[in-house]
Structures are given as structure tokens and as C-alpha cells.
Design goal:
The complex is a heterodimer. Chain A is α+β, with helices and mostly antiparallel strands. Chain A is about 30% helix and about 30% strand. Chain A is elongated. In chain B, strands 2-1-3-4-11-10-9-6-7 form a nine-stranded mixed sheet, with helices on both faces. Classes of the chains: A alpha+beta, B alpha/beta.
């Protein structure tokens, strides 16, 4: 099966996110009130082949641990989407 | 020939010639080693210089860690050889797991390029062996991601084992925990620093305080060479084990 993996990487709790803070301060200046907890991170998307979703998740988790994220400063959240079958 | 320094050059490194020139100015001999090399030759010490190895893609040092030369650097370090990472080189060493912790964006979100005062916090390392504890050195910094951090337990270890080698004095320029500017490993032979000693190697550059650090490394490299000849556990016997598997 083919899966689209979407990995969101953000700073770990306690790691300063000055970009997020700056955006949080900038939005009210444009009249967007009530904004909180703004975080800036990065998104890595790719397609992978795996027998099932559990196997796909295990592979992507391993990729995060070994390369995609640095666990000292970052946390990764993984979303898997099944590739739509061609019509 | 003594005091042979291997200066590792990754695609995107940009301080390798400065390091080589500064090293030669304190009496050593330097060779620039391309990142695809699987051996460090007859090096007595290794420097991973500053720059933007592999474009800093993903994270600074994240891709450089997979360059073939890093296997040789890890073996050299395991054999007791002196390894120093400067700026981007420090980032590479943390990503490679040769030093703990990580370096991330400066707290002020600005690229910093200025001379700062650093205090020698420990003289028990290959880079600070010739300095006095508490000695203040004027050294240039030049980075966007120099904000050192690590987990609580690591920080406790670094402090209790006196493995913080350099600390920013006065205002902390990048927000690093405990004003850390440089650390060493438990064995004291691997050191990472954000400031650039090679850019403070001549009064014409505004400071010559970095010479003291390079001279310390030169002394350490001579010691390692003796070990290598003495009991066969030094870097040379490591090299004799053949090229890296990768």
C-alpha cells in the first residue's frame, strides 16, 4: 500500500519559539484578536510503500528518531493518509 | 612532522582556509580533508570548521553527520585523538552524537557577527589546556543557530564534571543555557565551541586571544602522537584498521 506521510516538526516544550511569539504579537496589530499558542515549525511530506498503516507508522517514527527531527530540541507528529486509488 | 591538523571540508564549509592559516601561524601543519575521505591520514588533531555544511539543510549538521569522513572522525575521537568543532563544526558534532545537546536559533532571532568576551570555564580539555581558569578571551562569533541547549540531566553532568569549557561573559548573545559557548566530552578530547578562535589569531584581526586555544590544541595533538607511538591505542593504530565500512 502507498501512504502519504505528513511529518510536522515543532520545537519541544520549553524550547523558545521566537518566530511563533513574534507572529503572535504581530496578529493583533492587524486586528486579529484572541490569538494564542502560535508555533512555527516545518512540514515534511513524502509517499512511502508499506504493507499496512502500522508498518508505515513504525517506519516514519524511526525516520523521525534518526534523521527528520532532533529529539533534543524538536518533536514530530506523524499523519498518514492512504493514497486515493486511481479512478 | 608534528602538529598535523586535518581540517574537514564539507560542501558549504567556509572557514577551512582560515583555520589552516591560523594553525600554521601557531606552528602546526594543516591539510584540508574533503568530506568524502574515509581516512584522516596522519592527522594528530581534527577540526570541523565553520560554515554551512550541506547548506544546513534540515538542521545545521544533520546531513554532514552522514558524510563518509565522519566515520573516520568518530574512530579518531574514540582513539583519544583531539577533535574540535568550531561553530558549524560544533553543530555537526552534536548531530553526530560526539557531543551532547543541540544548537538552535539565537533567542534574538538575529544572525550575530561580533566579537564577544568569553570566560574559560574549564582548562581540562584539548582546546583550553593552556589557558587559566577564569581567563577572559575576546573571540568573534558568527552564527544564527548558536543557542546551546540540552536536557536537565545533561546540563547537570556538564556542570558537575566541569565540561563547560567556555562561557559568554556579560550579556549572553544567543540565549544559550548557562551562557554556554563551548563544551567537551567526558574524555576531554572532543570540544565544540561557537566562537571562532581562528578569527582571533592576529592583532590585525582585532584580537589574538584565539591563539591560546590553538596553541593548547597543538600541545594536545603532540601528546596524542606520543600515545599513538607508545601503546598503539592512538589514532594511528585506528587508521591501520582500514577504510570505513561505508
Amino acid at each position: 500500500m502507498k501512504f502519504t506521510a505528513v511529518v510536522e516538526i515543532t520545537g519541544r516544550e520549553g524550547i523558545a519559539d521566537p518566530q511563533g511569539l513574534t507572529i503572535e504579537r504581530a496578529l493583533p496589530a492587524l486586528g486579529f484578536d484572541g490569538i494564542e499558542q502560535v508555533h512555527v515549525g516545518k512540514l515534511i511530506r513524502f509517499v512511502l510503500e508499506a504493507p499496512d498503516e502500522a508498518a508505515a507508522r513504525a517506519r516514519v517514527t524511526s525516520m523521525c528518531d534518526r534523521l527528520l527531527a532532533n529529539p533534543v530540541i524538536e518533536q514530530a507528529s506523524i499523519r498518514l493518509e492512504t493514497e486515493a486509488a486511481p479512478a | 612532522m608534528s602538529g598535523m591538523l586535518a581540517v574537514v571540508c564539507f560542501p558549504g564549509s567556509n572557514c577551512e582556509h582560515d583555520v589552516a592559516a591560523a594553525w600554521e601561524s601557531v606552528g602546526g601543519t594543516a591539510a584540508i580533508v574533503w568530506h568524502t575521505a574515509t581516512s584522516l591520514g596522519d592527522a594528530d588533531a581534527v577540526v570541523l570548521p565553520g560554515g554551512f555544511a550541506h547548506g544546513d539543510y534540515l538542521r545545521p549538521g544533520a546531513i554532514a553527520r552522514f558524510s563518509p569522513v565522519m566515520d573516520a572522525v568518530a574512530r579518531f575521537a574514540a582513539g583519544g585523538g583531539p577533535v574540535v568543532g568550531i561553530c558549524n563544526g560544533f553543530q555537526v558534532l552534536t548531530e553526530a552524537g560526539l557531543l551532547p545537546g543541540a544548537l538552535y536559533r539565537n533567542s534574538g532571532l538575529r544572525f550575530l557577527c561580533k566579537t564577544v568576551e568569553c570566560e574559560v570555564a574549564s582548562t581540562d580539555s584539548v582546546l583550553t589546556g593552556g589557558a587559566r581558569a577564569g581567563q577572559v578571551l575576546r573571540l568573534p562569533i558568527n552564527h544564527y543557530e548558536g543557542n546551546y541547549t540540552c536536557d536537565e540531566r545533561t546540563l547537570l553532568e556538564l556542570e558537575s564534571e566541569e565540561r563547560v569549557v567556555l562561557r559568554y561573559r556579560g550579556e549572553n548573545p544567543n540565549g544559550s543555557v548557562h551562557a554556554i559557548a563551548g563544551i567537551t566530552n567526558r574524555e576531554r578530547n572532543v570540544v565544540g565551541v561557537m566562537p571562532h578562535p581562528e578569527r582571533a589569531s592576529d592583532p590585525l584581526l582585532g584580537s589574538a586571544d584565539g591563539r591560546l586555544l590553538l596553541e593548547s590544541l597543538l600541545v594536545a595533538s603532540a601528546t596524542v602522537r606520543r600515545w599513538a607511538g607508545g601503546n598503539g591505542t592512538g589514532p594511528e593504530s585506528v587508521h591501520a584498521s582500514g577504510p570505513a565500512a561505508s
